[in-house]
Specification:
With 520 residues, the chain is α+β, with helices and mostly antiparallel strands. Helices cover 40% and strands 12% of the residues. It has a 5-stranded mixed β-sheet with strand order 3-2-5-13-6, covered by helices on one side. Strands 8-11-7-12 form a 4-stranded mixed β-sheet. The longest helix is centred in the C-terminal third of the chain and has 27 residues. The radius of gyration is 24 Å and the shape is globular. The two termini are 38 Å apart. The N terminus is likely disordered.
Protein backbone atom coordinates (compact mmCIF):
# COMPACT_ATOMS: atom_id res chain seq x y z
CA UNK A 1 0.00 0.00 0.00
CA UNK A 2 1.22 3.50 -0.83
CA UNK A 3 0.82 6.82 0.85
CA UNK A 4 -0.82 9.79 -0.86
CA UNK A 5 0.96 13.39 -0.75
CA UNK A 6 -28.79 -21.87 -24.07
CA UNK A 7 -30.47 -20.57 -27.09
CA UNK A 8 -29.69 -17.77 -29.48
CA UNK A 9 -30.70 -15.47 -26.63
CA UNK A 10 -27.63 -16.73 -24.81
CA UNK A 11 -25.46 -14.79 -27.22
CA UNK A 12 -27.80 -11.92 -28.04
CA UNK A 13 -26.21 -9.39 -25.71
CA UNK A 14 -22.64 -10.56 -26.19
CA UNK A 15 -21.78 -9.90 -29.81
CA UNK A 16 -18.57 -8.10 -28.86
CA UNK A 17 -15.56 -10.36 -28.88
CA UNK A 18 -12.18 -9.76 -27.30
CA UNK A 19 -8.82 -11.19 -28.31
CA UNK A 20 -8.38 -14.66 -26.78
CA UNK A 21 -5.12 -16.16 -25.62
CA UNK A 22 -4.10 -18.96 -27.97
CA UNK A 23 -2.90 -21.45 -25.35
CA UNK A 24 -4.75 -20.39 -22.27
CA UNK A 25 -3.70 -17.76 -19.74
CA UNK A 26 0.01 -17.06 -19.35
CA UNK A 27 1.42 -15.54 -16.17
CA UNK A 28 1.74 -11.78 -16.17
CA UNK A 29 4.90 -12.04 -14.12
CA UNK A 30 7.40 -14.90 -13.95
CA UNK A 31 9.00 -16.35 -10.85
CA UNK A 32 8.01 -14.98 -7.49
CA UNK A 33 4.35 -13.84 -7.31
CA UNK A 34 3.77 -10.10 -7.43
CA UNK A 35 1.76 -8.87 -4.46
CA UNK A 36 -0.52 -5.86 -4.89
CA UNK A 37 -2.62 -4.33 -2.15
CA UNK A 38 -6.34 -3.82 -2.72
CA UNK A 39 -9.20 -1.97 -1.09
CA UNK A 40 -12.58 -3.35 -2.15
CA UNK A 41 -15.91 -2.04 -0.88
CA UNK A 42 -19.34 -2.99 -2.13
CA UNK A 43 -22.77 -3.08 -0.53
CA UNK A 44 -23.03 -6.82 -1.22
CA UNK A 45 -19.49 -7.82 -0.17
CA UNK A 46 -17.90 -5.14 2.00
CA UNK A 47 -14.37 -6.53 1.87
CA UNK A 48 -12.07 -8.31 -0.56
CA UNK A 49 -11.67 -12.00 0.28
CA UNK A 50 -8.35 -13.56 -0.68
CA UNK A 51 -9.94 -17.02 -0.33
CA UNK A 52 -12.62 -16.59 -2.99
CA UNK A 53 -12.16 -19.53 -5.39
CA UNK A 54 -12.29 -17.13 -8.34
CA UNK A 55 -9.44 -15.12 -6.84
CA UNK A 56 -7.42 -18.26 -6.17
CA UNK A 57 -7.80 -19.23 -9.83
CA UNK A 58 -6.83 -15.74 -10.97
CA UNK A 59 -3.72 -15.92 -8.77
CA UNK A 60 -2.73 -19.21 -10.33
CA UNK A 61 -3.18 -17.94 -13.87
CA UNK A 62 -1.69 -14.43 -13.52
CA UNK A 63 0.89 -14.94 -10.75
CA UNK A 64 -0.39 -11.70 -9.23
CA UNK A 65 -1.63 -11.97 -5.65
CA UNK A 66 -3.96 -9.31 -4.29
CA UNK A 67 -3.65 -8.63 -0.56
CA UNK A 68 -6.58 -7.12 1.29
CA UNK A 69 -6.06 -3.78 3.07
CA UNK A 70 -9.70 -2.64 3.00
CA UNK A 71 -10.65 0.09 5.45
CA UNK A 72 -14.21 0.92 6.44
CA UNK A 73 -15.49 -2.56 5.56
CA UNK A 74 -18.53 -2.16 7.81
CA UNK A 75 -19.56 1.24 6.50
CA UNK A 76 -22.78 1.71 4.56
CA UNK A 77 -22.47 2.43 0.85
CA UNK A 78 -23.83 5.90 0.16
CA UNK A 79 -25.78 5.42 -3.05
CA UNK A 80 -27.01 9.01 -3.24
CA UNK A 81 -23.72 10.88 -3.25
CA UNK A 82 -21.96 8.41 -5.50
CA UNK A 83 -19.12 8.04 -2.99
CA UNK A 84 -18.73 5.64 -0.12
CA UNK A 85 -17.78 6.60 3.38
CA UNK A 86 -15.07 3.96 3.15
CA UNK A 87 -13.45 5.65 0.14
CA UNK A 88 -13.48 8.98 1.93
CA UNK A 89 -11.95 7.36 5.00
CA UNK A 90 -9.24 5.79 2.86
CA UNK A 91 -8.44 9.15 1.30
CA UNK A 92 -8.45 10.94 4.64
CA UNK A 93 -6.03 8.39 6.07
CA UNK A 94 -3.50 9.28 3.39
CA UNK A 95 -3.16 5.66 2.33
CA UNK A 96 -4.16 4.54 -1.15
CA UNK A 97 -3.62 0.88 -2.04
CA UNK A 98 -2.24 -0.33 -5.36
CA UNK A 99 -5.79 -1.15 -6.48
CA UNK A 100 -9.03 0.48 -5.29
CA UNK A 101 -12.29 -1.26 -6.18
CA UNK A 102 -15.68 0.03 -5.11
CA UNK A 103 -19.29 0.55 -5.94
CA UNK A 104 -19.98 4.15 -6.98
CA UNK A 105 -16.29 4.77 -7.65
CA UNK A 106 -16.66 6.82 -10.82
CA UNK A 107 -17.24 10.26 -9.34
CA UNK A 108 -14.61 9.63 -6.68
CA UNK A 109 -11.75 8.75 -9.04
CA UNK A 110 -12.80 11.35 -11.59
CA UNK A 111 -12.55 14.00 -8.89
CA UNK A 112 -9.33 12.87 -7.23
CA UNK A 113 -7.62 11.30 -10.23
CA UNK A 114 -6.85 14.64 -11.88
CA UNK A 115 -5.57 15.81 -8.49
CA UNK A 116 -3.01 13.01 -8.52
CA UNK A 117 -4.55 10.28 -6.38
CA UNK A 118 -5.01 7.78 -9.22
CA UNK A 119 -3.03 6.89 -12.32
CA UNK A 120 -4.52 7.81 -15.73
CA UNK A 121 -5.07 4.65 -17.74
CA UNK A 122 -5.24 5.82 -21.36
CA UNK A 123 -1.61 5.22 -22.32
CA UNK A 124 -1.37 2.07 -20.22
CA UNK A 125 -4.35 0.60 -22.04
CA UNK A 126 -3.01 1.63 -25.43
CA UNK A 127 0.38 0.04 -24.84
CA UNK A 128 -0.23 -2.92 -22.53
CA UNK A 129 -3.91 -3.95 -22.51
CA UNK A 130 -5.01 -5.32 -25.93
CA UNK A 131 -8.33 -6.68 -24.69
CA UNK A 132 -9.35 -3.45 -22.99
CA UNK A 133 -8.19 -1.52 -26.04
CA UNK A 134 -10.34 -3.72 -28.30
CA UNK A 135 -13.37 -3.09 -26.10
CA UNK A 136 -12.96 0.70 -26.02
CA UNK A 137 -12.13 0.87 -29.73
CA UNK A 138 -15.40 -0.88 -30.52
CA UNK A 139 -17.38 1.16 -27.98
CA UNK A 140 -15.86 4.65 -27.91
CA UNK A 141 -18.98 6.04 -26.23
CA UNK A 142 -18.08 4.01 -23.15
CA UNK A 143 -14.60 5.52 -23.05
CA UNK A 144 -16.15 9.00 -23.31
CA UNK A 145 -18.68 8.26 -20.59
CA UNK A 146 -16.15 7.10 -18.01
CA UNK A 147 -13.50 9.75 -18.73
CA UNK A 148 -12.82 12.55 -16.29
CA UNK A 149 -13.02 16.24 -17.16
CA UNK A 150 -9.33 16.21 -18.15
CA UNK A 151 -10.03 13.54 -20.78
CA UNK A 152 -8.30 10.70 -18.93
CA UNK A 153 -9.77 7.39 -17.81
CA UNK A 154 -9.05 6.63 -14.17
CA UNK A 155 -11.02 3.44 -13.63
CA UNK A 156 -12.09 0.27 -15.42
CA UNK A 157 -15.83 -0.12 -14.95
CA UNK A 158 -18.14 -3.02 -14.39
CA UNK A 159 -19.87 -3.32 -17.76
CA UNK A 160 -23.32 -4.97 -17.70
CA UNK A 161 -24.41 -7.09 -20.64
CA UNK A 162 -27.79 -7.61 -22.26
CA UNK A 163 -30.59 -5.16 -22.97
CA UNK A 164 -33.52 -5.91 -20.72
CA UNK A 165 -33.96 -5.37 -17.02
CA UNK A 166 -37.48 -4.64 -15.82
CA UNK A 167 -40.88 -5.11 -17.42
CA UNK A 168 -44.57 -4.70 -16.66
CA UNK A 169 -46.08 -7.82 -15.03
CA UNK A 170 -49.75 -8.63 -14.52
CA UNK A 171 -51.84 -11.47 -13.06
CA UNK A 172 -53.15 -12.98 -16.28
CA UNK A 173 -55.18 -15.53 -14.32
CA UNK A 174 -57.02 -12.60 -12.71
CA UNK A 175 -57.63 -11.09 -16.14
CA UNK A 176 -59.05 -14.39 -17.32
CA UNK A 177 -61.26 -14.70 -14.25
CA UNK A 178 -62.74 -11.27 -14.96
CA UNK A 179 -63.02 -11.75 -18.72
CA UNK A 180 -60.42 -9.07 -19.49
CA UNK A 181 -57.74 -8.94 -22.16
CA UNK A 182 -54.16 -7.93 -21.45
CA UNK A 183 -54.18 -4.11 -21.32
CA UNK A 184 -52.82 -2.35 -24.39
CA UNK A 185 -53.26 1.30 -23.35
CA UNK A 186 -53.03 3.35 -20.18
CA UNK A 187 -56.83 3.56 -20.14
CA UNK A 188 -57.16 -0.23 -20.38
CA UNK A 189 -54.48 -0.67 -17.74
CA UNK A 190 -56.39 1.59 -15.35
CA UNK A 191 -59.60 -0.31 -16.09
CA UNK A 192 -57.89 -3.61 -15.31
CA UNK A 193 -56.50 -2.27 -12.03
CA UNK A 194 -59.92 -0.97 -11.07
CA UNK A 195 -61.44 -4.37 -11.84
CA UNK A 196 -58.81 -6.01 -9.65
CA UNK A 197 -59.81 -3.64 -6.87
CA UNK A 198 -63.57 -4.05 -7.12
CA UNK A 199 -64.38 -7.47 -8.60
CA UNK A 200 -62.64 -9.90 -6.22
CA UNK A 201 -60.38 -11.71 -8.72
CA UNK A 202 -58.74 -13.80 -5.97
CA UNK A 203 -62.19 -15.13 -5.12
CA UNK A 204 -61.99 -14.94 -1.34
CA UNK A 205 -65.00 -12.68 -0.93
CA UNK A 206 -62.93 -9.82 0.45
CA UNK A 207 -61.92 -6.52 -1.10
CA UNK A 208 -58.29 -7.16 -0.18
CA UNK A 209 -56.59 -7.06 -3.59
CA UNK A 210 -53.70 -4.61 -4.12
CA UNK A 211 -53.98 -3.74 -7.82
CA UNK A 212 -50.51 -2.17 -8.30
CA UNK A 213 -47.46 -2.60 -6.08
CA UNK A 214 -43.69 -2.14 -6.30
CA UNK A 215 -40.68 -3.13 -4.24
CA UNK A 216 -38.80 0.15 -4.80
CA UNK A 217 -41.10 3.16 -4.61
CA UNK A 218 -39.41 5.01 -7.52
CA UNK A 219 -40.85 2.26 -9.73
CA UNK A 220 -44.25 3.79 -8.99
CA UNK A 221 -43.02 7.16 -10.27
CA UNK A 222 -41.86 5.42 -13.46
CA UNK A 223 -45.55 5.13 -14.37
CA UNK A 224 -45.48 8.82 -15.37
CA UNK A 225 -44.26 7.48 -18.74
CA UNK A 226 -47.87 6.47 -19.34
CA UNK A 227 -48.67 10.20 -19.51
CA UNK A 228 -45.60 10.99 -21.64
CA UNK A 229 -43.46 11.96 -18.69
CA UNK A 230 -40.10 10.57 -17.64
CA UNK A 231 -38.81 9.55 -14.22
CA UNK A 232 -35.12 9.18 -15.05
CA UNK A 233 -32.64 9.42 -17.89
CA UNK A 234 -30.84 6.22 -16.95
CA UNK A 235 -31.15 3.08 -14.86
CA UNK A 236 -30.33 5.25 -11.83
CA UNK A 237 -33.43 6.64 -10.18
CA UNK A 238 -34.06 10.41 -10.43
CA UNK A 239 -31.26 10.93 -12.98
CA UNK A 240 -30.90 13.83 -15.39
CA UNK A 241 -32.18 13.58 -18.95
CA UNK A 242 -30.62 14.96 -22.14
CA UNK A 243 -33.23 15.92 -24.75
CA UNK A 244 -31.84 16.73 -28.20
CA UNK A 245 -28.50 17.56 -26.62
CA UNK A 246 -29.95 19.81 -23.93
CA UNK A 247 -29.77 18.80 -20.27
CA UNK A 248 -32.96 18.85 -18.27
CA UNK A 249 -34.48 16.92 -15.41
CA UNK A 250 -37.54 14.65 -15.70
CA UNK A 251 -39.18 16.18 -12.64
CA UNK A 252 -39.79 19.53 -14.30
CA UNK A 253 -41.54 18.21 -17.42
CA UNK A 254 -45.20 18.65 -18.32
CA UNK A 255 -45.62 14.91 -18.83
CA UNK A 256 -44.26 14.34 -15.32
CA UNK A 257 -46.74 16.87 -13.95
CA UNK A 258 -49.65 15.14 -15.69
CA UNK A 259 -48.38 11.72 -14.60
CA UNK A 260 -48.08 12.62 -10.94
CA UNK A 261 -51.56 14.15 -11.00
CA UNK A 262 -52.96 10.84 -12.26
CA UNK A 263 -50.90 8.71 -9.89
CA UNK A 264 -52.34 10.77 -7.03
CA UNK A 265 -55.79 9.94 -8.38
CA UNK A 266 -54.95 6.23 -8.64
CA UNK A 267 -53.62 6.27 -5.10
CA UNK A 268 -56.75 7.98 -3.77
CA UNK A 269 -58.91 5.38 -5.53
CA UNK A 270 -57.00 2.48 -4.00
CA UNK A 271 -55.43 1.28 -7.27
CA UNK A 272 -51.94 1.64 -5.76
CA UNK A 273 -50.61 -0.10 -2.67
CA UNK A 274 -51.43 2.14 0.32
CA UNK A 275 -48.02 1.19 1.76
CA UNK A 276 -46.10 1.86 -1.45
CA UNK A 277 -43.60 4.19 0.24
CA UNK A 278 -43.04 1.99 3.29
CA UNK A 279 -43.57 -1.67 2.42
CA UNK A 280 -40.16 -1.97 0.78
CA UNK A 281 -38.40 -4.97 -0.69
CA UNK A 282 -40.82 -7.53 0.74
CA UNK A 283 -43.78 -6.23 -1.30
CA UNK A 284 -43.45 -8.64 -4.21
CA UNK A 285 -42.87 -11.70 -2.08
CA UNK A 286 -45.66 -10.95 0.40
CA UNK A 287 -48.35 -9.71 -1.95
CA UNK A 288 -47.89 -12.45 -4.53
CA UNK A 289 -47.54 -15.31 -2.07
CA UNK A 290 -50.69 -14.10 -0.26
CA UNK A 291 -52.57 -13.89 -3.57
CA UNK A 292 -53.13 -10.17 -3.17
CA UNK A 293 -50.95 -8.39 -5.75
CA UNK A 294 -52.17 -7.68 -9.27
CA UNK A 295 -49.47 -5.90 -11.27
CA UNK A 296 -45.98 -4.47 -10.89
CA UNK A 297 -42.87 -3.33 -12.76
CA UNK A 298 -39.86 -5.48 -11.91
CA UNK A 299 -36.97 -7.62 -13.16
CA UNK A 300 -37.54 -10.33 -15.75
CA UNK A 301 -35.58 -13.20 -14.21
CA UNK A 302 -36.55 -12.85 -10.57
CA UNK A 303 -40.19 -11.88 -11.09
CA UNK A 304 -40.87 -14.71 -13.50
CA UNK A 305 -39.83 -17.14 -10.77
CA UNK A 306 -42.98 -16.37 -8.79
CA UNK A 307 -44.95 -18.51 -11.22
CA UNK A 308 -43.84 -21.42 -9.05
CA UNK A 309 -46.64 -20.24 -6.74
CA UNK A 310 -49.02 -22.07 -9.07
CA UNK A 311 -48.32 -25.14 -6.93
CA UNK A 312 -49.88 -23.31 -3.97
CA UNK A 313 -52.35 -20.92 -5.59
CA UNK A 314 -54.57 -22.62 -8.13
CA UNK A 315 -54.18 -21.14 -11.61
CA UNK A 316 -51.58 -18.55 -10.52
CA UNK A 317 -50.01 -16.92 -13.58
CA UNK A 318 -47.90 -13.77 -13.57
CA UNK A 319 -46.74 -12.75 -17.03
CA UNK A 320 -44.89 -9.87 -18.63
CA UNK A 321 -46.97 -7.54 -20.74
CA UNK A 322 -45.90 -4.89 -23.23
CA UNK A 323 -45.71 -1.33 -21.88
CA UNK A 324 -49.21 0.17 -22.15
CA UNK A 325 -49.50 2.87 -24.78
CA UNK A 326 -49.38 6.33 -23.24
CA UNK A 327 -52.05 9.00 -23.64
CA UNK A 328 -50.39 9.96 -26.93
CA UNK A 329 -50.01 6.36 -28.07
CA UNK A 330 -46.31 5.93 -27.27
CA UNK A 331 -45.04 2.65 -25.82
CA UNK A 332 -41.72 2.94 -24.03
CA UNK A 333 -39.81 0.90 -21.49
CA UNK A 334 -37.77 3.44 -19.58
CA UNK A 335 -35.63 0.94 -17.71
CA UNK A 336 -32.91 -1.03 -19.43
CA UNK A 337 -29.52 -2.38 -18.52
CA UNK A 338 -27.16 0.54 -18.69
CA UNK A 339 -23.93 -0.40 -20.51
CA UNK A 340 -21.74 1.13 -17.82
CA UNK A 341 -21.94 1.09 -14.07
CA UNK A 342 -20.17 3.65 -11.88
CA UNK A 343 -18.57 0.66 -10.13
CA UNK A 344 -15.16 -0.81 -10.87
CA UNK A 345 -11.50 -0.42 -9.95
CA UNK A 346 -8.61 2.02 -10.30
CA UNK A 347 -4.84 2.14 -9.77
CA UNK A 348 -3.46 4.10 -6.81
CA UNK A 349 -1.04 6.80 -7.97
CA UNK A 350 2.10 5.45 -6.25
CA UNK A 351 1.60 1.87 -7.41
CA UNK A 352 5.11 0.74 -8.38
CA UNK A 353 3.77 -1.76 -10.90
CA UNK A 354 1.25 0.07 -13.11
CA UNK A 355 2.14 -1.97 -16.21
CA UNK A 356 1.63 -5.29 -14.44
CA UNK A 357 -1.56 -3.92 -12.85
CA UNK A 358 -3.12 -2.85 -16.14
CA UNK A 359 -2.19 -6.25 -17.56
CA UNK A 360 -4.00 -7.78 -14.59
CA UNK A 361 -7.04 -5.60 -15.33
CA UNK A 362 -6.77 -6.70 -18.95
CA UNK A 363 -6.75 -10.36 -17.92
CA UNK A 364 -10.40 -10.04 -16.85
CA UNK A 365 -11.24 -9.05 -20.45
CA UNK A 366 -9.63 -12.14 -21.97
CA UNK A 367 -11.82 -15.07 -22.88
CA UNK A 368 -10.68 -17.01 -19.81
CA UNK A 369 -10.80 -14.07 -17.44
CA UNK A 370 -14.24 -12.96 -18.55
CA UNK A 371 -15.57 -16.49 -18.12
CA UNK A 372 -13.99 -16.71 -14.67
CA UNK A 373 -15.54 -13.38 -13.61
CA UNK A 374 -18.98 -14.38 -14.88
CA UNK A 375 -19.36 -18.08 -14.18
CA UNK A 376 -16.86 -19.05 -11.48
CA UNK A 377 -14.74 -22.19 -11.65
CA UNK A 378 -15.03 -24.75 -14.43
CA UNK A 379 -16.01 -28.11 -13.01
CA UNK A 380 -17.37 -26.49 -9.85
CA UNK A 381 -20.03 -23.98 -10.86
CA UNK A 382 -20.16 -24.77 -14.59
CA UNK A 383 -19.04 -27.09 -17.39
CA UNK A 384 -18.00 -26.21 -20.92
CA UNK A 385 -20.57 -27.64 -23.36
CA UNK A 386 -20.31 -26.94 -27.08
CA UNK A 387 -18.01 -24.02 -26.35
CA UNK A 388 -20.31 -22.37 -23.82
CA UNK A 389 -20.17 -22.13 -20.04
CA UNK A 390 -23.24 -23.98 -18.73
CA UNK A 391 -24.03 -23.96 -15.03
CA UNK A 392 -24.29 -27.31 -13.30
CA UNK A 393 -27.82 -28.12 -12.24
CA UNK A 394 -26.71 -28.73 -8.67
CA UNK A 395 -25.27 -25.21 -8.62
CA UNK A 396 -28.50 -23.69 -9.95
CA UNK A 397 -30.42 -25.62 -7.29
CA UNK A 398 -28.46 -24.00 -4.43
CA UNK A 399 -30.64 -20.89 -4.38
CA UNK A 400 -30.34 -17.37 -5.83
CA UNK A 401 -27.62 -17.60 -8.48
CA UNK A 402 -26.23 -14.10 -7.93
CA UNK A 403 -25.73 -14.78 -4.24
CA UNK A 404 -24.01 -18.09 -4.94
CA UNK A 405 -21.68 -16.43 -7.46
CA UNK A 406 -20.79 -13.58 -5.09
CA UNK A 407 -19.85 -16.16 -2.49
CA UNK A 408 -17.16 -17.60 -4.77
CA UNK A 409 -15.94 -14.21 -6.04
CA UNK A 410 -17.78 -14.05 -9.38
CA UNK A 411 -20.07 -11.29 -10.69
CA UNK A 412 -18.37 -8.68 -8.48
CA UNK A 413 -19.35 -5.13 -9.41
CA UNK A 414 -16.30 -3.66 -7.67
CA UNK A 415 -14.13 -5.48 -10.21
CA UNK A 416 -13.75 -3.97 -13.67
CA UNK A 417 -15.11 -6.65 -16.01
CA UNK A 418 -17.48 -7.23 -18.93
CA UNK A 419 -20.54 -9.18 -17.87
CA UNK A 420 -21.84 -12.06 -19.99
CA UNK A 421 -25.65 -12.12 -20.17
CA UNK A 422 -25.39 -15.84 -20.84
CA UNK A 423 -24.99 -16.32 -17.09
CA UNK A 424 -28.46 -14.91 -16.38
CA UNK A 425 -30.39 -16.40 -19.26
CA UNK A 426 -29.63 -19.84 -17.82
CA UNK A 427 -31.74 -19.20 -14.74
CA UNK A 428 -34.48 -17.32 -16.58
CA UNK A 429 -37.57 -19.52 -16.90
CA UNK A 430 -39.98 -19.72 -19.82
CA UNK A 431 -42.04 -16.81 -18.49
CA UNK A 432 -38.97 -14.55 -18.49
CA UNK A 433 -37.86 -15.69 -21.94
CA UNK A 434 -41.38 -15.18 -23.31
CA UNK A 435 -41.42 -11.66 -21.87
CA UNK A 436 -37.99 -10.82 -23.27
CA UNK A 437 -39.12 -11.99 -26.70
CA UNK A 438 -42.23 -9.81 -26.37
CA UNK A 439 -40.09 -6.75 -25.60
CA UNK A 440 -37.68 -7.64 -28.39
CA UNK A 441 -40.49 -7.62 -30.91
CA UNK A 442 -41.79 -4.27 -29.72
CA UNK A 443 -38.52 -2.30 -29.60
CA UNK A 444 -39.67 -0.29 -26.58
CA UNK A 445 -36.32 0.65 -25.06
CA UNK A 446 -35.13 4.27 -24.93
CA UNK A 447 -31.58 5.60 -24.92
CA UNK A 448 -29.76 5.94 -21.63
CA UNK A 449 -27.90 8.95 -20.27
CA UNK A 450 -24.38 7.73 -19.50
CA UNK A 451 -23.45 10.52 -17.07
CA UNK A 452 -20.90 13.31 -17.04
CA UNK A 453 -17.67 14.10 -15.24
CA UNK A 454 -17.17 17.51 -13.65
CA UNK A 455 -14.07 19.62 -13.26
CA UNK A 456 -13.41 21.03 -9.79
CA UNK A 457 -15.43 24.22 -10.26
CA UNK A 458 -18.41 22.37 -11.74
CA UNK A 459 -18.31 19.85 -8.94
CA UNK A 460 -18.55 22.64 -6.37
CA UNK A 461 -21.67 24.04 -8.01
CA UNK A 462 -23.25 20.58 -8.23
CA UNK A 463 -22.40 19.70 -4.62
CA UNK A 464 -23.67 23.05 -3.36
CA UNK A 465 -27.12 22.80 -4.92
CA UNK A 466 -28.10 19.34 -6.12
CA UNK A 467 -28.69 17.59 -2.80
CA UNK A 468 -31.11 20.28 -1.66
CA UNK A 469 -32.85 20.44 -5.04
CA UNK A 470 -33.26 16.68 -5.20
CA UNK A 471 -34.60 16.43 -1.66
CA UNK A 472 -37.19 19.09 -2.39
CA UNK A 473 -38.25 17.37 -5.61
CA UNK A 474 -38.77 14.06 -3.83
CA UNK A 475 -40.52 15.61 -0.85
CA UNK A 476 -43.08 17.32 -3.09
CA UNK A 477 -43.41 14.20 -5.25
CA UNK A 478 -44.41 12.06 -2.31
CA UNK A 479 -46.76 14.71 -0.90
CA UNK A 480 -48.55 15.00 -4.24
CA UNK A 481 -48.98 11.25 -4.70
CA UNK A 482 -50.23 10.74 -1.15
CA UNK A 483 -52.73 13.56 -1.59
CA UNK A 484 -51.45 15.88 1.11
CA UNK A 485 -50.80 18.54 -1.54
CA UNK A 486 -52.07 19.37 -5.04
CA UNK A 487 -49.55 19.40 -7.87
CA UNK A 488 -51.74 21.58 -10.10
CA UNK A 489 -52.13 24.23 -7.42
CA UNK A 490 -48.44 24.16 -6.46
CA UNK A 491 -46.69 23.72 -9.80
CA UNK A 492 -45.72 27.37 -10.42
CA UNK A 493 -44.46 27.76 -6.86
CA UNK A 494 -42.61 24.44 -7.19
CA UNK A 495 -40.78 25.60 -10.30
CA UNK A 496 -39.94 28.94 -8.69
CA UNK A 497 -38.58 27.23 -5.61
CA UNK A 498 -36.40 24.92 -7.71
CA UNK A 499 -34.91 27.98 -9.36
CA UNK A 500 -34.23 29.57 -5.96
CA UNK A 501 -32.57 26.36 -4.76
CA UNK A 502 -30.18 26.38 -7.71
CA UNK A 503 -31.55 23.94 -10.28
CA UNK A 504 -30.63 26.27 -13.16
CA UNK A 505 -27.05 26.42 -11.90
CA UNK A 506 -26.91 22.62 -11.70
CA UNK A 507 -28.30 22.25 -15.20
CA UNK A 508 -25.74 24.80 -16.38
CA UNK A 509 -22.74 22.80 -15.19
CA UNK A 510 -24.38 19.59 -16.38
CA UNK A 511 -24.70 21.11 -19.86
CA UNK A 512 -21.09 22.31 -19.92
CA UNK A 513 -19.81 18.91 -18.85
CA UNK A 514 -22.12 17.12 -21.29
CA UNK A 515 -20.98 19.24 -24.24
CA UNK A 516 -17.34 18.69 -23.36
CA UNK A 517 -17.71 14.96 -22.88
CA UNK A 518 -19.90 14.07 -25.83
CA UNK A 519 -19.05 16.77 -28.38
CA UNK A 520 -17.54 14.15 -30.68
Amino acid sequence: MRTLGLTAVLLAGSALTTPALAEGPKPIVEGKPLELSIQMNHARYPIYDENWPVEQQAREWTNIHLKDVTVGANMRTDENSGKTEALNLMLASGNIPDIVGSSRIKDFVNQYGPEGAFIPLNDLIEEHAPNLKAYFDERPEVASAISAADGNMYYIPYLPDGKYGRAYWIRTDWLDALGLDVPETVEEFEAALRAFKTQDPNGNGLADEIPYFVRQWPELVRLVTLWDGRSSGSDTYHDFLPVDGKMTHPYIGEGYREGIKNLARWYAEGLIDAEVFTRGGSARDFLLSENLGGATHDWFASTSGYNSLSSEIEGFEFKAMAPPASISGKRIEEHRRIPIKPDGWAIGYTNDHPVETIKYFDFWFTEEGRRLANFGIEGEQYDMIDGKAIFKQEFLDQGPVNRSLWQVGAQLGARGYFQDYGYEIQWSNEFALEGIDLYDQGDYLVDQFLGVSFNADEQKVYDKHWGTVRDYMLERQQAWILGSADIEAEWDDYMAQLDKLGLSEVLGVMQTAYDRQYSN
